Each structure stands twice: as C-alpha cells, then as structure tokens.
C-alpha cells in the first residue's frame, strides 16, 4: 500500500514506500523517492555522523601508540584517483539531472550529498595515512552500504531496459564504487617497499591487516599454511600485538589498583580514624612471656608462643577491601563494552531467524499467490542474516578472548611485582607454591571467564525475548513454559551456592598439595638418601584424595545441573504445547506454530544448556579473583623504612631503631639500635648464634618492619646473603647481574674472588650453565659467585653476611685479603661484615657486638679488647668452644693460627675470668699459646695451593657441553593415539563405550522427538479442525502428546545416567593420572632433577592436573553433545528433504579439509604455549627465593621486565592459537550458513513438501550453525586440554630408578650388622653419554673402621658416597656390604639401612616428629633421646606442641644451625651400622660444627664411618685415609703409614697444608 504522505514537490509525486509495489512486482521494485533518499542519505549520513568520533579515535590511538605516517605509494594514490572519479561522476550525474526540464528537489540534495561525502572520504583517507592507519573499518562499512544501495538502480535499469544517460552514469558510478570497495579489502603499506623488520620473529600481521581481513581472520592464514607444511617452531610465530603486551596493559592496571587501594584505605580511615593510622604499628604491645628464657633473638622470633597484641580500635570487621573486579572493569571496561555490544547485535540477529521461518512457511503454504523471487530472497536472507550474525559472534569472541588475555597479562605481572614488594610478615601467609597457583590456575580462570561475561546479561535477555516471541506464537500457553523455568530457578541458586563453597575448599586443598609438592621437589635428594619417598607419596596422596572427594561432589552437582538444564527446554516445550492444545479453540498444533516455537525453544535452549558450564566457571573465577585480590592487597615492605641521603655524613646510619620480623611476636627482634658507619670503613658485626647479626643487615636493607627509629643510607648497596642466591644462568651472567661486560674488570673479580681455578674445571668455563639454585656448584663456590656479583656491581656500601663461613680457611684468607680488607679490591668502599672468624677482627676499623637483639658493645678492636665487656665474653666463649672441640676447628691456616694466638694472649691480659684459663683445658697464658700453636699444625686446610673448596663433583660436571638444564620438549605432529588411549584406559574402555551408547540413546530420542513433532503437525485428522473436540481428535492429540512426553522422559533418564557415569569415572581417571605421574616422578633418578627445573615439574602438577581435573571432563561432555547434535541435525534435515544429501558430501569434505588444514597449526601452537609457560614459573620461583638480593641491588625493574618478556612471549603463542581458532570458527560457520541456504533453497524448490517437513528442515538447519560453531570450540578445547594428558603421560614414562623393594632378594632385618664394605672394580657415570667418574675402584673397608676420603677437586669423593646409596648406578663392577651386592637388592632396603648426614639441611613442612620419623617406626622416647644427643632437647621442649610443633615451609621458622642439628637427630634416630658424612659441617657456624662433631664421635663410636674431608685435619685421627685421584683410589692406608711414605700423595697434601 502506498504511504499516506507523498512528497509532490520534493519527490515528484513519488511515494517514499509502497509495499504493494515491492511484493507484487515481478522483481523487488522500490519507489524512486526511496532510491533517491534512503539509499543515498542512509550510507552518507552514517559516515557524517561517525566522522567526529572517528577523528577523535584516530588522534587518541596515534598519541598512545605513537604511530608513524604512511608514505605516498601507488596503492593509496590509485584509491585517491578512484575517489576523485567518483566525485566527477557524481557531479556529472547532478549536472545531467539539472539539465532536465523538471528536476525534483531531492535530486539536487542527493547529488550534493554524494559529492560532499566523497570529498569527506578523500579527506579521511589522507588523515588515516597521516595517523598511520593501514585500513579503515568506517570506510569499509560505509562503502558496503553504498554498494548495496548502488545495486538497486542498476538492476532496476537492466530489468526495465533503460538506455538513458542517467542509467549509464549510474553504471559507471557503480563500477568505480565497486573497484574502490574491492581496494578496501587490501591494507595500505605501513612501510616502504623493501623494508624488513629486524628480529628473529615476524611482526604481528593483525597490525597490517585490512578491516575485512580482520573480520574474517584471514591474516593468520599464512601461519596456518606454514603449520600445515611443517611443525611450527617458536621463531615462526609472530610476536604479540603491542596492544596486548604488558608494557601497554600493566601501567593503567597498576594505576587503577593503586587508586582502588587508596580509596578503601581512606574509607576505612574515615570509618575508624585509628584503624589505619601510621602509628598503628607503634601501638603493638610486646608482652614478654614467662617461658621466653633467652629473650628476643633470631631463633625465637618465629618460634615464640601465641602473642598478645593490643591495638587501639584495631578491629578489622566491616573494613572495605579493594575490589579487583572494579579495577578490571575500570581499565578494560571499554573493550569489554565493545565485545558485549557485538554480542548484543549477534543476539538480536538470532531472533530474526524465527521470523524468517514463519515467512518461509507462509510462502510454501501459499505458494500459488506469491511471487517466485520472494522464496529465493527468503532463502538468501537466511544466509545473509546468519553470515552477519557469524561475523558479529566470532568478532565478539575474538575481542573478549583477547581481552581475557590482556587481563591475565596484567594480573600475572601485578602478582610478580607484588612478590618483589610483599613484606616478610605477609609472605608467610602465601607460600611459593600458593603464589605459583595464583599465577597458573587463578589467572587462567580469570582469563577464561572474560569470554563468557556476556552470559550474565545475554542469557536473561535471550530468555525474556524468546518468551515474549513465544507469547506471540503460542499465546497464554507460553506461560506454562515460563512456570517451568520459574520453578527451576531455586535449583539453580542452590547449585551455584554449593559450587562456590566447593571451589573455595578445592583451591585451599590444591594450594596445600602444591606446597608439599614444591618441598618434595626441593628436598628430593634427601628423600632418596633416607628412602622417604613412600612417606611423602602417602602424604601427597592423602591431600589428593581430599581434593578428589571435593571434585567428585562438585562433579555430581554439575551432573545434576546438566540433567536439569538439558531437560528444562524440553519440559518447557512439553508444557507449552500441552497447554496450547488444551486452551486453543481448534486444539490443532499447526506447522508454523510448532516450528517457529521450536526455533524459539532452540534459542531458549542455548543459554540454558550453557548454564551447567557457565555457573562453575563464573564461581571459579569469582573465587580466583578473591584470592588474587587478597594477595595483591597484602602488606608491602615499607619503602620509607630506609631513607637515601647522598649528603649524609655516614654510609649507614640507624637512630633509635626497633625492628621486628613479626608484629605478632612477644618481643621485637632488634631493639635500641644506634649505628653510625663512616664511608669507606670496614665494620665487623659479631655475636653468638641468634644474637641478631643477620637481622641487623636486614634492617639496613629495609627487609624488616620498622617499629621505631630512622635508617639512612648514603649510596648504592651490594648484598651477599648468608645462603647464596644463584640464578639458573651462566656463571658469567650470575656475576655480571645485568651490568655491562668489561673484560679487565671481570678477570680481576674472578681472581680476587678465587674463581679462576673453577673455570678450568667447569666444561664451558664461565659460559657453563649453572643449574637451578646453583645445583652444580658447591656451597663455597656459590658463596664466591655471590661475592663476585657484589664486587663486580661496583656499589658504594657492601653488606656481607658471613661470606667466609662456607669456604676453607686458605680461601677465606685469600678473599679477605684480596677483597674485603683495607688492602683489597673494596678498600675504598664501605664494608659491613658479619663473621664468626675472630682472627679478622684486628684488621677491621670498627666492631659491633650483638647480643639478644641489641648492640651490647661497639668500637675499634683495641677499644673493645682493652676491657672486660661483651666483646671479651664473646671471645672467651669462642676459645672455650674451640678447646672443647678437641681437634675440630674452623680455621686452619698457619697465619690465621698465629693471629688467633695473639688474640688469645691479648684477651688473657685484660680478663680476670679464671674459669677461662684453668682446669684441664688451659692453665695459663703460656699453656694457652702452646695449645694454640700445637693445634695449628693439625688444623691446616686440605691443601695450601687449593684456592677453591671441594666441589660437588661429577654429577653436574658434564664434558658433553655447557648446558645442564634441558629445553622443555614440545611434541610435534598429531596427538598420538596413545595419549587418547591413556585417558580412555584411565576412565575405563567399557565405561567410554557405555557413555557413547547412553548418549546415542539420548540423541536418538531427541531426534525422533523432532520427527514425531513434524508427524504431529502434518497429521491429516488433526489438520481437519472441523473435528476439533471429538473423541478421535482428542485421543489423537493425547497420543501424540504422550509419546512426545515419553521421548522427553527418555532424554532426561539417559542424560542423567551419562552425566553421573562421566562425572564419577573422569574424577577417578584424574586421580589415576596424577598418581601415576607422582609415583613415576618420585622414582625418577637424580639426573632427572639435575636437568629439569622445578618450575617445569610444578607446572605439570598444578596447571596440567587442574586441566585434567576440571576442564577436560567438561570439554569431553560438550564434545559428545556437539558431535551427536550435529549428526542428529543432519539426519533430521535429510529425513525431511532427502535432496539435501546432495550438498552434505561436498560440505562435509570441505569441513574435513578445513579441520585438517587447521589442526596441525593449532596443536603445535598449544604445545609451544605450554612449554613457554614453564619459564614464567621457573623465573618466578627464582625471584621469590632471591627477592632480598634483587631489592638490595635495586634491579627490580630488570627482573620485572624479564618476567614481562616471558609472559608476552608465552601469550603470543596463545594469541596466535586464539586467532587460528576464530578463523576456523568463521570458516565452519560459513559452512553451516551454506547448510541453512541449501535447506531453505530445497524447501523453496520442492513444491510438494509438507509444511511440517519444511519447518522441521529449516528450523533444524538454523541450529546447525550454532552446533558447528560450538563443535569448533569444544574440539579446539579438547585438543588443547588433551595436551595436558600428553604432558602428564610424558612424566608417567620418564626413566626410573631400580625397584624400591626386590621381593626376591631382601636382606635380613639386622643387615648390615658388621658394616664391611667391599668395592670390586667399581665404575660409574652420572648420566648416559658422560665420562666415567669412578674408574675401577677396588678396596675393602672393615667393620667399625673410620675412613676419611680426601682428594683434590673432581677426584670422585662425593661420587663414591652417592654410589653407596645407588643415586648413580654401576657401569661395571660392584659394591658389596656385609657379603650382599647392593646392586641386587631394592633401593629402599639399601638406603634405609645406611645413614648420611648431608651438607645441606633440608626440612619439610610438618611436625618435628615427622621430620625425624616419617614412618612412625620409633617411640617418642627414642625421638626425645635423639633430640637430646643432638643438643635440641631444651629448645624443642620450649616449643608449643614440642615434637608436634609445625615446621614452616623449608624449615623457615628454624635457624640454619637448628636445621643442621635436626638433620643430625635424624641420623641418631636411624642409628645404622654405616654412617656417611658428606661435608656435613662445611657451611655451618663454629658452634654447630662443634656440637655435630662431638655427637658423631660419642654416638657412632662402634659404626663404620666414611667421611668426605672438608678439612684435612678432621680425618687425621681416623683409622684409614682413602686418597681419590681422577676417579681412582690412589692410596688407602692409615694416616701414619701414608705419612711415613714421603712419596705418597697424602704426604704431599699434608706437607702443603703444613701438617708435617
């Protein structure tokens, strides 16, 4: 019908719109007014409206991204020429129109609009080039509209055979417009021709892709093609788009987080003025405990009783906490809004489909009265609408998933930076394992949920619109369906509540499992030496079983949720159709009503079927956001604790300082600290163990919480910690530590730090890779590398925390003389040295004496020793301990002994304590001097020429090359069938078969219900509405409705069975895979741990196990659903229109080809992404352990940059995978849209097709696009997640040690009862491909003999001891202990019968009792007896819980000395006949050394003892000496016999050491 209003003067009496003209013509005919207005003003007006915003956008992007302009080239010149031609043609058309006798006003306006619009286009093109835009989405969209609008006058002229000049000009205009449009499919050249970007990896192609290329993701096709031809390598994949890099996303995130924290702090302060005041810490009331016998010191600060603190108004209840969600929305809200807007358009287009189905059914039922072209237009409309929907849907996911990646990038970087600034007190609440979980699991969950945020609003919106449209189709009957939904809502709320509770529990248990796993990997050597693997296997398994129980509960809940929401749409359909039949006047369910409703129910089904997956995901993300928020909100180290003042008169100054490690402890760690250290001075800090020496240095570094006082530093610091921190890098990189390389300076540092000889031993010299935590260096070497780093840094002030304790006396003297002393390399620097070596004290400028956390005395050496005070007491204690230690002594250099003798004489001259110089030990000054001189000769170092200490030798010393840590292997090619079979076997092959059969029954009943519905609507009896109300009519309806209900019941029963079976068995499979990997990892040889970074193993136990726990089962269920849904849809369409099978085959082949083309690239990208993820965690673990050193050197930014680089590198592969997945999704959706087009066309072409079958065919074809899209996602996720099974399987199959127990050859319960050891031509190597480290060792050690093993570095001493425990296996020969070859018995039978006291004390989290007796084999009395002999009884008695006291992670709440004494207690508990001492006292202080040696001599007097000599004098009183040389036993006899032979190696060593 013509529009009511005509525009006589404006449009020459033409109506704007005429429906009759459009629909009843032989072709789609539009009025001339519509052509001259809407088709011109619409596209042009859109451009003018958006131009101001577009200009602002370009200016902002150019400003932030720093884009450079695009130079003039042939391509953009040609585009400009075409625009000028369009302007010319538009002018010609206007001139031609104006030459007519009568010209409507609209012609002038439309012609002018065209001209000014194309001028604007030319201007925009110039501006785009200036701002560096290689493509224009705005112009592409506008030209798309112009092309569509331009088609109308052209086809109108062709049909009507118009030969006027205006028609030819319109054709010319359209051709030029089309050429310009096609040019917009290509991007401009960002760089001049011949320009190449330097770098190993190509630039991100997205930056150079045209807008349509970006919409269809074809810019990734070159990478997919390359991946199809060969296995991709890292260098093949483009770098990350700068938009997504951490340098772009982190600064605004940090700024927003800071503002959010400040907002909460101010709100809390306003609510409670005293709650967050700066003085709050000063109000902590330290209450001294009655059992605090020793006062506050380093030993007690973490071990005291539960404290009493009084804080004024300190309630935390109701405090506002920073919201990570708010920060994410504030920073990334713009991109999130864009993605949600795209989804809104996609959702809107979804509801066009039911309207088209209604129109198509109306066309087919009234075909005779309709124009033929209408059917084809409707068929094409299905394709166009679905195609546009696909573009918006896929681009929504691209934007949201890339956004998730940016959020993850920002959060990971923020967590890393937080780990560098978190206070030591807050750090105890988050173990390294927990923080790794934050970075791996929680950040991933936050990323994943960003792609599904739309569900929060889209799901309710789609349900509301679908119900509204159902009301229009079914009327009041749709309310029955709504009632079903309302009844199901409470179920949803209960499920969500329970799921969240389970997730919180699950993450806590996961944290504790990773924490224990982290400790196990750190202490693996100790576990193997003590044969404790089974104990920790049970401990981890117990935690894992708790985790699996919660997983199972959560899985059952998800199964129930799946059942409810799978049945819900069908129940809604059933209720609605039943109500419709009951209340409609005819009682007839016609095809249009049924299949439009089915289409709407299908739309309704989408959000409902997603609910079971989305609810857990949203809950997991909510829990993860809370955990990350809590960590990021934890307390930082106060940067204002230490002030920098370059004009200060002191290098370090502390005034009235009170410091603590823990505000909850009864006493502060340091009190009344006043320090004034002059620039360039050498200051020694001395005191007994636990007196606060190391804490004083920490206070200077700003590592402690300052309760009161002022700390001022003048210049830059360098720090050498007591436990050396070594990076997993080359030796040179460890020393340079980011500084520039100066050859002369570097050589000088190596010489002064006594590292030159080490380079000769290491296979690659200073390019040798030092393993994780310095695994292939001895304790002394690590300390010297740490010192070399400090010296090379050329700082102004050096804090040296006992760097000489881990080296031999001769090396110590060399380092002190060449580096630390006033004649050394640091002579002009300020040096603060913590030391136990009293012989250095006469050579220092100033001495600070610490006692019980206070400075008890300070001054020069002469000032302090000239009177009897705290310093004199300290010296007396030192000499008393030395005298008691018989022949044990830390220092053993001739010159050093001379200095000590002078110190003793001076001490005696000023003290009156007769106890010190009386009794059996010393009776006078001369005797004291004689005693010292006599002992001097028996206490020399192993060799004077030895400038390095004994290395942990051959295990790490590979002549095969300089690389120790192997690159993580990324598999190539298809995920092998073995990987799928591994998982199927874990689930159960029969179970998988049963699941398939059950789901087949479900899909069969679902498909048949659709066919049954078409039969219902086409039933001729029911179509005859004149019979409505008759018994036959009603019975027929009841029959159809009953069968339809039974089919629904069958679907519900089968899907519930499937969900329950899959839930229980997949949780069990996850448990089996974890157990298999754990068992295999614990059985792996030590060579595996030497070459595999701990972070890499932890990655398998955290991220990969989490994937198999949660993501993989959900993906498999979705995969089942998608495969069967697509199959069922195709069968349904083929049933209704058999001709459809003609296109199924070619489309199926195209689908298969695209999948095969895509899969190799996707799979390899996922693998590379997995392998590049591990270095993030390795670097993070390394950073956490060395945080104090990193802060001291002020290199936080460099480490943050390295972490950001690793994260960006990892995400570049994820992003490439993401885009490849989107490309596949777009391609497959286009195939789905072709299916819709084919179905609609066949419905139009098949003239005799029943309406019910047309409705069935078309309504199901519209679902295939969504099904294929979902199939792509689930297939991609399955591919991704199955890689985790592949990675777990890899660690389930790594080579293992020999069996723990050999049931056919077990030694007797008392073996070894004699302790006789016989080496028979024994040879061994550390790993295949390496040289032999023991070469034909043959010797006998008799029962009860004490054998000292000596030899130069690399001689094979440590190799001999680890061979006894079979940490390395024999290449040939054998070792026989008490007549049993150790190679024939199980490893645990061997290792549990030997005892070793290792050099490094390893303590596990758990009770003290568990650390001594993990298998509960000994009584409490025996444990207490061992603690008494280990000199720990008094200490443990004072602990809460005593032997049930919980040790911190890695024994963090015990001092180093206490840890070593606890290790001694382990050996005492075991009390085996054979004891091995592996440099057990090499790195401990004097007091601990003396306690250990005393206990060994008294408690192991009747045992066979093998001791690797850290110092030659320690084994001079042994029964025999074994001299190792180049892997062979060169000499083996008593010390006296060897010394009698002046040609022996031992004699030469003793002579060099000054012992003879």
Topology:
Layout: H1 19-23, H2 32-36, H3 38-65, H4 74-98, H5 105-131, H6 137-159, H7 165-183, H8 211-216, H9 221-229, H10 246-271, H11 324-350, H12 352-365, H13 372-421, H14 424-427, H15 432-450, H16 455-474, H17 478-522, H18 524-530, H19 533-583, H20 591-633, E1 642-644, E2 652-660, E3 670-677, E4 682-687, H21 693-701, E5 705-713, E6 717-720, H22 731-736, H23 743-752, H24 756-761, H25 779-793, E7 797-801, H26 809-820, E8 830-834, E9 846-851, E10 854-859, H27 861-865, H28 870-884, H29 894-910, H30 925-937, H31 977-987, H32 989-1017, H33 1020-1023, H34 1031-1083, H35 1086-1091, H36 1094-1136, H37 1141-1185, H38 1187-1193, H39 1196-1245, H40 1251-1292, E11 1317-1324, E12 1334-1341, E13 1346-1351, H41 1357-1364, E14 1370-1377, E15 1380-1381, H42 1387-1391, E16 1394-1397, E17 1406-1407, H43 1408-1412, H44 1420-1429, H45 1433-1437, E18 1446-1447, H46 1456-1470, E19 1474-1478, H47 1486-1499, E20 1504-1508, E21 1520-1525, E22 1528-1533, H48 1535-1540, H49 1545-1552
Parallel strand pairs: 1-5, 4-8, 4-9, 6-7, 7-8, 13-20, 13-21, 16-19, 19-20
Antiparallel strand pairs: 2-3, 2-5, 9-10, 11-12, 11-14, 14-15, 17-18, 21-22
Feature tags:
single chain; 1556 residues; alpha/beta; ABC transporter transmembrane region fold; Rossmann fold; 6-stranded mixed beta sheet; 49 helices; disordered N terminus; ATP binding; translocase
């Amino acid at each position: 019908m013509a529009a009511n209003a005509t525009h006589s003067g404006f449009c020459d009496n033409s109506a704007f719109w005429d429906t009759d003209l459009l629909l009843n013509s032989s072709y789609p005919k539009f009025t001339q007014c519509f052509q001259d207005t809407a088709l011109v003003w619409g596209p042009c007006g859109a451009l003018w409206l958006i131009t101001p915003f577009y200009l602002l956008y370009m200016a902002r992007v150019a400003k932030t991204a720093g884009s450079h302009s695009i130079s003039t080239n042939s391509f953009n010149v040609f585009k400009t020429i075409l625009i000028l031609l369009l302007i010319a043609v538009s002018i010609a058309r206007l001139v031609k129109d104006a030459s007519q006798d009568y010209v409507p006003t609209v012609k002038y306006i439309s012609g002018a609009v065209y001209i000014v619009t194309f001028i604007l286009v030319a201007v925009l093109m110039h501006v785009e080039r200036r701002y560096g835009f290689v493509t224009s989405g705005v112009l592409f969209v506008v030209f798309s509209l112009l092309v569509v609008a331009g088609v109308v006058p052209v086809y109108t002229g062709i049909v009507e055979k118009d030969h006027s000049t205006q028609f030819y000009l319109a054709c010319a205009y359209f051709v030029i417009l089309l050429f310009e449009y096609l040019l917009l499919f290509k991007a401009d050249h960002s760089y001049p021709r011949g320009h190449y970007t330097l770098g190993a990896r190509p630039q991100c192609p997205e930056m150079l892709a045209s807008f349509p290329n970006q919409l269809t993701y074809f810019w990734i096709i070159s990478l997919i093609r390359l991946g199809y031809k060969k296995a991709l390598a890292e260098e093949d994949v483009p770098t990350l788009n700068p938009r997504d890099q951490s340098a772009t996303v982190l600064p605004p995130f940090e700024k927003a987080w800071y503002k959010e924290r400040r907002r909460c702090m101010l709100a809390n302060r306003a609510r409670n003025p005293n709650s967050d005041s700066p003085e709050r810490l000063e109000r902590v009331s330290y209450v001294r405990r009655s059992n605090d016998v020793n006062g506050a010191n380093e030993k007690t600060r973490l071990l005291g009783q539960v404290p009493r603190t009084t804080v004024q108004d300190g309630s935390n209840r109701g405090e506002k906490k920073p919201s990570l969600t708010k920060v994410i929305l504030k920073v990334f809200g713009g991109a999130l809004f864009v993605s949600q807007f795209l989804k809104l358009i996609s959702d809107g287009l979804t509801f066009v489909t039911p309207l088209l189905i209604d129109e198509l059914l109306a066309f087919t039922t009234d075909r005779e009265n309709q124009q033929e072209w209408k059917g084809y237009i409707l068929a094409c409309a299905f394709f166009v609408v679905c195609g546009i929907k696909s573009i918006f849907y896929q681009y929504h996911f691209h934007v949201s998933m890339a956004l998730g990646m940016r959020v993850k990038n920002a959060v990971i970087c923020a967590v890393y930076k937080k780990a560098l600034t978190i206070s030591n007190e807050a750090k105890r609440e988050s173990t390294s394992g927990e923080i790794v979980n934050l970075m791996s699991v929680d950040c991933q969950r936050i990323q994943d949920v960003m792609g599904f945020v739309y569900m929060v609003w889209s799901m309710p919106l789609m349900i509301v619109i679908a119900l509204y449209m159902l009301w229009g189709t079914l009327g009041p009957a749709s309310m029955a369906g709504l009632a079903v939904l309302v009844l199901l809502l409470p179920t949803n709320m209960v499920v969500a509540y329970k799921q969240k509770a389970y997730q919180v529990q699950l993450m806590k248990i996961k944290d504790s499992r990773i924490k224990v796993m982290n400790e196990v990997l750190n202490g693996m050597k100790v576990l193997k030496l003590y044969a404790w693997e089974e104990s920790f296997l049970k401990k981890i398994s117990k935690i894992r079983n708790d985790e699996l129980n919660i997983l199972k509960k959560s899985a059952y809940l998800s199964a129930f949720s799946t059942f409810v929401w799978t049945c819900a749409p069908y129940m809604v359909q059933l209720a609605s159709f039943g109500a419709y039949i009951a209340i409609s006047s005819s009682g007839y369910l016609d095809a249009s009503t049924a299949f439009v409703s089915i289409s709407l129910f299908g739309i309704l089904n989408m959000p409902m079927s997603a609910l079971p997956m989305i609810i857990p995901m949203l809950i997991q993300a909510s829990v993860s956001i809370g955990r990350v928020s809590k960590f990021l909100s934890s307390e930082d180290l106060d940067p204002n604790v230490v002030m920098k003042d370059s004009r200060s008169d002191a290098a370090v100054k502390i005034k009235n300082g009170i410091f603590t490690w823990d505000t909850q402890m009864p006493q502060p760690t340091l009190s009344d600290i006043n320090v004034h250290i002059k620039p360039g001075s050498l200051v020694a800090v001395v005191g007994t163990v636990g007196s606060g020496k190391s804490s004083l240095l920490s206070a200077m570094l700003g590592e402690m919480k300052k309760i009161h006082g002022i700390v001022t530093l003048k210049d830059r610091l360098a720090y050498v910690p007591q436990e050396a921190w070594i990076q997993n890098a080359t030796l040179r990189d460890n020393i340079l530590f980011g500084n520039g390389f100066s050859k002369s300076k570097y050589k000088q540092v190596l010489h002064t730090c006594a590292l030159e000889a080490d380079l000769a031993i290491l296979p690659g010299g200073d390019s040798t890779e030092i393993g994780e935590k310095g695994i292939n260096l001895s304790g002394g070497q690590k300390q010297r590398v740490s010192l070399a780093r400090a010296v090379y840094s050329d700082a102004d002030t050096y804090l040296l925390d006992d760097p000489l304790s881990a080296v031999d006396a001769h090396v110590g003297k060399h380092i002190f003389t060449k580096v630390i002393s006033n004649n050394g390399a640091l002579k002009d620097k300020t040096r603060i040295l913590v030391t136990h070596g009293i012989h250095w004290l006469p050579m220092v400028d100033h001495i600070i004496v610490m006692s019980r956390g206070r400075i008890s005395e300070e001054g020069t050496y002469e000032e302090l020793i000239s009177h009897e005070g705290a310093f004199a007491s300290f010296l007396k204690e030192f000499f008393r301990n030395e005298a008691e230690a018989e022949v044990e002594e830390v220092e053993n250099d001739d010159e050093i002994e001379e200095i000590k003798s002078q110190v003793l004489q001076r001490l005696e001259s000023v003290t009156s304590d007769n106890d010190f110089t009386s009794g059996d030990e010393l009776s006078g000054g001369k005797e004291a001097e004689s005693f010292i001189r006599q002992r001097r000769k028996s206490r020399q170092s192993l060799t004077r020429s030895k400038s390095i200490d004994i290395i942990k030798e051959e295990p790490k010393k590979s002549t095969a090359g300089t690389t120790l840590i192997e690159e993580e292997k990324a598999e190539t090619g298809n995920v092998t069938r073995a990987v799928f079979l591994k998982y199927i076997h874990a689930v159960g092959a029969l179970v998988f078969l049963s699941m398939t059969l059950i789901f087949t029954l479900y899909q069969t009943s679902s498909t048949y219900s659709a066919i049954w519905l078409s039969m219902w609507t086409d039933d001729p009896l029911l179509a005859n509405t004149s019979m409505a109300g008759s018994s036959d009519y009603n019975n027929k309806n009841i029959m159809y409705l009953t069968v339809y209900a039974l089919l629904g019941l069958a679907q519900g029963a089968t899907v519930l069975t499937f969900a329950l079976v899959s839930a229980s068995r997949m949780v069990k499979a996850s448990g089996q895979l974890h157990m298999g990997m754990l068992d295999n990892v614990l059985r792996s040889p030590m060579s595996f741990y030497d070459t595999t970074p701990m972070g890499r193993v932890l990655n398998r136990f955290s991220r990969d196990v989490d994937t198999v726990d949660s993501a993989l089962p959900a993906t498999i269920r979705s995969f089942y659903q998608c495969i069967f849904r697509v199959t069922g849809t195709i069968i349904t369409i083929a049933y209704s229109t058999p001709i459809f099978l003609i296109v199924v085959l070619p489309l199926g082949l195209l689908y298969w080809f695209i999948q095969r083309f895509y899969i190799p690239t996707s799979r390899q990208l996922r693998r590379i992404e997995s392998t590049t993820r591990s270095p993030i965690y390795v670097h993070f673990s390394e950073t956490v352990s060395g945080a104090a050193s990193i802060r001291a050197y002020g290199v936080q930014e460099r480490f943050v940059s390295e972490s950001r680089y690793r994260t960006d590198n990892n995400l570049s592969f994820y992003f490439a995978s993401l885009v490849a997945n989107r490309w596949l999704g777009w391609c497959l959706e286009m195939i789905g849209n072709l299916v819709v087009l084919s179905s609609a066309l066949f419905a139009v072409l098949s003239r005799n097709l029943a309406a019910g079958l047309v409705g069935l065919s078309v309504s199901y074809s519209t679902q295939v696009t969504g099904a294929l899209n979902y199939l792509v996602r689930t297939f991609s996720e399955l591919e991704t997640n199955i890689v985790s099974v592949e990675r777990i399987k890899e660690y389930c199959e790594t080579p293992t040690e020999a069996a723990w127990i050999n049931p056919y050859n077990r030694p007797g319960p008392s073996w070894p009862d004699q302790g006789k050891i016989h080496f028979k031509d024994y040879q061994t190597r550390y790993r295949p491909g390496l040289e032999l480290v023991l070469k034909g060792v043959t010797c006998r050690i008799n029962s009860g003999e004490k054998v000292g093993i000596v030899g130069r570095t690399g001689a094979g001493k440590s190799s001999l001891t680890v061979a006894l425990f079979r940490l390395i296996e024999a290449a040939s020969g054998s070792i026989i202990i008490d007549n049993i070859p150790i190679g024939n018995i199980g490893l645990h039978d061997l290792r549990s019968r030997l005892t070793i006291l290792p050099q490094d004390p390893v303590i596990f989290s758990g009770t003290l009792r568990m650390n001594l007796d993990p298998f509960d084999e000994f009584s409490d009395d025996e444990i207490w007896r061992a603690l008494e002999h280990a000199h720990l009884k008094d200490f443990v008695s004072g602990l809460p819980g005593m032997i049930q006291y919980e040790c911190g992670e890695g024994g963090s709440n015990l001092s180093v000395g206490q840890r070593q004494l606890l290790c001694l207690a382990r050996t005492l508990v075991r009390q085996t006949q054979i004891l091995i001492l592996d440099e057990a006292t090499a790195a401990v202080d004097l007091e601990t050394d003396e306690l250990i040696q005393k206990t060994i001599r008294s408690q192991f007097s009747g045992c066979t003892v093998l001791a690797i000599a850290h110092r030659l004098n320690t084994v001079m009183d042994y029964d025999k000496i074994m001299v190792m040389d180049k892997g062979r036993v060169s000499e083996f006899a008593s010390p006296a016999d060897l010394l009698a032979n002046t040609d022996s190696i031992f004699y030469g060593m003793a002579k060099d050491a000054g012992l003879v």
